[in-house]
User: What shape does this take?
Amino acid sequence: MIDKIFFGDVKHVMLSELAIIGGFTKVKDVDFPITGVATLARAGSGDLSFFSGRKYISDLKNTKASAVILTEANLNDLPENVVGLVSSNVMVGYAKALDVLYPPEPHLHHICSTAKIHETAKIGDGCYIGDNAFIGENVEIGDNVFIGRNTVIEDNCKIGSGSNIRNNVVISHSIIGNDARINSGAVIGESGFGILPTGSGMVYVKQLGRVIIGDRVRIGANTTVDRGSIDDTVIGNDTIIDNLVQLGHNVQIGEKSILVAQVGIAGSTKIGNNVVLAGQVGVVGHIEIGDGVMAAAKSGIASSVEPGQMVGGIPALDADLWKRQVAFLKTSVARKKTTT
Assistant: This one.
């Protein structure tokens, strides 16, 4: 349920206008305002919904929505009085529709009185800096940046224009690009795990690198990105990192890659462009994962992976081989049960 207490009122948009903006093909020559968004099962008159998979086919056939985003293949499953908005990618179309119906509200242009900003810091135009935020010496913040409550930007860091740094974030030793989003509780630029056990105790190796984050990067809540030891930790443009991800020192990630929740990457590993690491994937240090690699959830990647491969399992193998191994094990266990 979309609660207007949190998300405000939906913007009433004519269906024909929504179809143009979202790139949909409208299958009926009718027009009316969209007044809400709901799931297929909950939708009513005036609502927009979407059909994302066969699991919801019964909901589609019985929906009371006024319009549904779907692929051409499922048009015949729509109730007669429902207008189809045909899209080649339903979820992308749905995302575009939400941007129209729930446009982002511009943030306040205001620096709260309890924020502490060093006199040498440079703050761009149109910024918001929340209560109890701390901005250190020689920090540079671009235009239209949002800094949330209790967030700490330590000395000499740079944050590009249009970025959104949420509440309780700590950033040090970092240069962050434009239009980045760093969600609450993230810690960027702390020292990496430079610990050497010796016979007389632990020796700490000073971490002297930085974190370099590109444009339009999104970093989830409570994710940690360690600064480099000498070389920098680098995250390329348009990469998306989910909540509770750990990136070790000197990790380098290319552009447009996706790291899902609880991924952990050890130090000095290089990740290419357009890589997808599903939830809880673990990656050892000092290896390379090529462009376009996809790793199944909970995979353990212990050696370098060539570009374009799909891998899974512990240790991670080619996905087809991994599936055959899993199937063989299941069959072997079933046979053992029937013979005992």
